[in-house]
Design brief:
Length: 75
């Protein structure tokens, strides 16, 4: 885990909350395994580019919101 992984996970969790989605719901909508998504959100391992694309589509946000300080969940 590194700082970028943790910040990205935090921003995704924030976007999930704003969208009213929990892990199970996001997993179902993205097709990702809930256990994998849980590990990613805990920053145990980094999100892949493909996973980030799926997440941004479901959460209806731009990837820059999840990867940069301009995102809504600055940490």
């Amino acid at each position: 885990m590194d700082l970028l992984d943790q910040q990205t996970a935090d921003r995704i969790a924030h976007a999930m909350g704003a969208a009213g989605l929990d892990v199970e719901q996001l997993a179902a909508r993205t097709g990702l395994d809930a256990a994998v998504l849980t590990a990613r959100l805990a920053a145990a391992s980094p999100f892949t580019v493909a996973e980030l694309v799926l997440v941004t589509v479901v959460l209806d946000c731009d990837s820059t919101q999840l990867l940069t300080r301009s995102g809504s969940a600055d940490v």
